[in-house]
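Worked example

This section walks through a single chain of length 411. The input is the sequence exactly as stored; nothing has been trimmed or padded.
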Amino acid sequence: MSEIEIIEVIDFVSFTIAIILLFIGKFILSRSECLKRYSLPEPVIGGFICTSIVAGIYYLFGKEVQFSLESRDILLLYFFAGIGLKADIESLLKGGRPLLVLLLLASVYIVLQNIVGISVATLFGLDPKSGLMSGSISLIGGVGTTVAWAPVFVDKLDISNAMELGVASNTLGLISACVIGGPIATYLMKKHQLYNHNQAESLDIGTAHNQHKHITVDYFGVLRAWLWLNVSLISGYFINVLLESAGVMLPMFVSCLMAGIVWGNVGRWVLSRINSSEFNSYADDAEKGLSLIQDICLGMFLTMALMNLKVWLLEGSLLYLVVVIGLQVLLSIGFTIWVVFKAMGKDYESAVICAGFGGVTLGSTATAIVNMTAVTQQYGAAHKAFIILPLVCGFFIDVVNAVVINYFVAM
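Given that input, the structure is written out below as tokens.
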């Protein structure tokens, strides 16, 4: 193939394309009972369509479309700030034991995931440590962790294709993560005949498929939610600065999550002291507005993430990647169904957590939440799942992953 011509799409246009793709995804899902039944996330449909078109342009015309996606990262900050604003400290304390259990399971899984990567790399005659780039570095860690570790593998371990292996593994992993979450939850609910006792309650994110015409959102409720999200983002920035000055490096979205938890619980404490029906009405309207904004931000984030997948990066080590990611998918499904589901209580909430766990083990925390959102839109609210999993996967798991990666690299 001749030299590839780069077509750059500016951020504003990329954002607009993502809106169109999300509309397409929602339209197709609304017309397909099969996709609804297995809770395939709406952003995945539009994102895959874009990925296919971009790949076609690359192979047919020798042109690479590159989307500028600065706004994508801001959408993620809004989403996690919203998770924090909704997180009730009292509920977090009640969920302490399940949170610790899920963290322990995630820690064990990180070790298993890296063992699979190392084993397959050895089988293919590669440097065993290069398998870490197809393990928790690229899968649980994501692109950010891959970019951070690749220079170490190139300079200190002399693995020259570390970046390519990591990015390609992340690409296949992300696609798999978007697909397996919903079917895992559906399988568990059918097999164990699970019933959701919170079916009539409002969802943590978005609205149920059969309720779109019955949800009313107040103008000022959206505006209040937007204000508190911005306050949380500003506070999160300062928290991040303080942590960095103390030598603690955390992703920005974790700081926004922490800020949201603080502001959300302060607001609820103040409202409980006022005990006014008018203020309670304001809080309810803001809650609906927050769910709406979160739903849009999360959908747009994943759509934009899938838009930028470059499937041609898989070509170099295709057989190795198919084998290693295939085994990682099987490990994720098996561990989630046979270990996580049982350990988390074998109820509806556990099934929703499993949808998220299947997402985060191959993709990212955002993928996990998208999977859980798709399941709850079909089967109803799962409040505990939306408290426990974001905290474990959006905060604690990054720390554990860093420790485990360092151990394997030093071996």
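What to look for: The chain has 15 helices and two strands.
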